[in-house]
Design brief:
Shape: globular
Number of helices: 16
CATH architecture: Up-down Bundle
Oligomer: single chain
Radius of gyration: 20 Å
Length: 333
Amino acid sequence: MSFRRAFSHIDRFLAAILLTVALASVAPARGEAAAAAVWLTDAAIMLLFFMHGARLSPEAALAGARHWRLHAVVFLSTFALFPLIVGTCRLLAPALLTPPLWAGLILLSALPSAIQASIAFTSIAGGNVSAALCSASASNLLGTVLAPLIAGLLLASSAPLSAHSMLAIVLQILVPFLAGQLLRPLIGAFIIRHRLALKSVDYGSILLIVYAAFSDGVVNGIWHQVDAAQLLRLAVMDATLLATVMTILTFASRRLGFSRADEITIVFCGSKKSLATGVSIATVLFAGHVGLAIIPLMIFHQIQLMVCATLARRYASRGEITEPVAELAAARS
């Protein structure tokens, strides 16, 4: 009984993430398996946004796009607060990290929000999913331009921009979402009634992201390019950075009078950083030193998923998450 009682207090989603990390460490995806993992991850993300498109009413999606105050807070956190904190720390304590790791941390601070994780955690926690979709997508579209400029400014370098990330966002996020919106009259009511299916896609997409990202790090040996003391110091700095930003966002959202659902969206969208965008920009900014440059981002990525898994479950347990009756009626019509 004592073992069962102790196990019941463990966040099962966090435990699943830790088991996924362990699996990727012992049996990382290589070669064709790695390509399959990437394909499955992309497919899960597309399915996630298709189902959210079928679930959300057009009125809710439009309301999310018009929520300019929420988006302003998220953008300021993503492209101003993060760089300000990291830049200040570098000025005050440059000896804490080696120059390549500082460069990677600066890159991390300039990156846009992670779309799939932001949406999934917002959905799990009971936040404003339509606003999260608009905010995280816009963050990535703007981040394709802003992230290299901010990182280049802080690093006194520059990098060319590519439209590849924009095209990926359109094909992987917006197209499935619009397809879901178009098919909503046919399948919307079914998806709303079967919330477990949407939740399974939310959780599954995050676990696939964790496995693919950690496998890539293990296969490329980036965890062996720094010693244990540096990794520990970097992990503490990443965790402190995330905790600081999330605390500021929680306090600011309450002081500004946002609802609980909007607070959840602000906290999750404003504190995430995109691993995929970071890796693509790092290949341009740090040619020949990509491995060291993305270590801060790899560690931050794992920490943000684990922390947000726990936080999302806590948000969900504090408030009853119900589907509006009007939305279900509209889906049936």
